[in-house]
Specification:
- By secondary structure, this protein is of the alpha+beta class.
- The protein folds into 2 domains: 299 residues, Zn peptidases (Aminopeptidase), CATH 3.40.630.10; 114 residues, 2-Layer Sandwich (Alpha-Beta Plaits).
- It contains 13 helices and 17 strands.
- Strand 3 and strand 4 form a beta hairpin.
- Belongs to the peptidase M20 family.
- This is Peptidase M20 dimerisation domain-containing protein.
Length: 421
């Protein structure tokens, strides 16, 4: 019987995580040398076992294992290798390694499938570099606003097209990354939970039913700079204190919607031209609101907008919405969800149904193909942090479920092989 190789999974995980490793976590930002090196490592490992790989116009790495009928739509698995600043070792990475290990297992066992199988290593899943996430999966379904993305810059003032050029890519050709609906049968992603529900409820597998999409707002608050010693308290137009009141309202509004699983965060606060003896005259806020319930998310936004008007009047400042982006929550395919639960029950693996508060590439793939997202536990719910950790037993169990799911859709060529695998 062919099984997943636990020792090899650990060794490969360690190898990938040497790329971009620093004392403060892993820095493997999208479209950097480190990101490219990690994708090259995966490509090399796949080519060593005889598989073909290519990079598409968005920088997604696509590895293909042919099926006996290679004209059939492929069963696709995948995730991402790029990280946030100071990221952890498991977020996204285990989903990529799951595809690699499934390929290795099938090749070692000389197991044939009717449908081809693909591993997709998505580019720029994290928003850390450009404040723009899931670029690779958006490109695959043709959901890129080229004019908008062209003007995005990283903290070093490089635009997306400039960064593409450094990677030998041409942003003007990004539409060449679009895949036809007929090319894929299903998309499956394995990922760490990035929360603590699985640990709390002592479950090994989380079957995601839906993914909450973010609504993001950038605010500019303009008050009046003045001397901190000579301006009386009643005559101040303090932009930072106005920002603080708005930030507290963001929290209050989300708490009022907590029963819908809605959350809201002020992730960025910039006080411009600040000094200890100067009353702040300008501040910027970036707000992230997430929910699988659009109505609940919109209620939070309306409460924030009402607070902006109140703060303008009480603090004598001007508050403007610099930009706002809004994405729609996505629900995973019910048939695939049922198949995952059946696999868990057959293997006596404890599972639960849950929503994802974090965005993933699966949410965009689900707009065009049946899709599923499988979670494994994050110890203490930590993610996007050097202390991020998932037990190897949980990783192996997640890969086992994914392997059976892949084979159920790729269709084993021989019933005897089906029973062994």
């Amino acid at each position: 019987m062919v099984i997943l190789n636990r020792a090899r999974i650990v060794k490969t995980l360690d190898k990938v995580n040497q790329i971009g490793l620093t004392e403060s976590g892993i820095n493997r930002l999208a479209y950097t040398v480190e990101d490219k090196e990690a994708k090259y490592f995966i490509r090399e490992q796949c080519e060593l076992i005889g598989l073909q790989a290519k990079e598409d116009a968005a920088g997604n790495l696509i590895v293909r294992r042919p099926g006996l009928n290679d004209s059939l739509p492929a069963v696709a698995v995948g995730s991402h290798l790029d990280t946030v600043y100071g990221g952890g070792k498991y977020d996204g990475t285990i989903g990529v390694l799951a595809g690699l290990e499934i390929f290795r297992m099938l090749e070692e066992g000389e197991i044939k499938t009717l449908h081809p199988i693909e591993l997709i290593v998505f580019a720029c899943e994290e928003s850390s570099r450009f404040n723009f996430s899931t670029l690779g999966s958006k490109a695959i379904i043709g959901a890129i606003d080229k004019d908008y993305v062209k003007q995005l810059k990283d903290k070093n003032n490089y635009t997306v097209p400039e960064v593409f050029e450094k990677q030998s890519l041409n942003f003007d050709h990004i539409e060449h990354a679009v895949r036809k609906e007929s090319e894929l049968k299903v998309f499956l992603e394995l990922h760490i939970e990035q929360g603590s529900q699985l640990v709390t409820y002592k479950k090994t597998i989380g079957i995601v039913t839906g993914i909450a999409a973010p609504l993001r707002v950038a605010l500019t608050i303009v008050g009046k700079r003045a001397h901190s010693g000579t301006t009386s308290m009643e005559n101040r137009q303090d932009a930072f204190l106005a920002a603080a009141e708005i930030a507290l309202k963001v929290e209050d509004a989300a708490i009022e919607e907590a029963k819908f699983g809605t959350v809201a965060t002020v992730g960025v606060v910039d006080v411009l031209s600040s000094a200890m003896n100067v009353i702040p005259g300008k501040a910027n806020l970036k707000i992230d609101i997430r929910s699988t319930d659009v109505s609940s998310r919109n209620r939070v936004l309306e409460k924030i907008k009402a607070e902006l008007k109140r703060v303008e009047k009480s603090r004598k400042v001007k508050v403007g919405i610099e930009w706002m982006t809004e994405e729609e929550p996505v629900h995973m395919d019910q048939k695939v969800i049922k198949e995952i639960s059946s696999i868990c029950e057959k293997n006596n693996i404890p599972y639960m149904f849950m929503a994802s508060g974090a965005g993933h590439d699966a949410m965009y793939m689900a707009k065009r193909w049946p899709a599923a997202l499988i979670f494994v536990p994050s110890v203490n719910g930590i993610s996007h942090h050097p202390d991020e950790f998932t037990e190897i037993d949980d990783i192996v169990n997640g890969m086992k479920v994914l392997k059976e799911l892949v084979l159920s859709y790729a269709i084993l060529a021989d019933e005897n092989v089906r029973r062994e695998a």
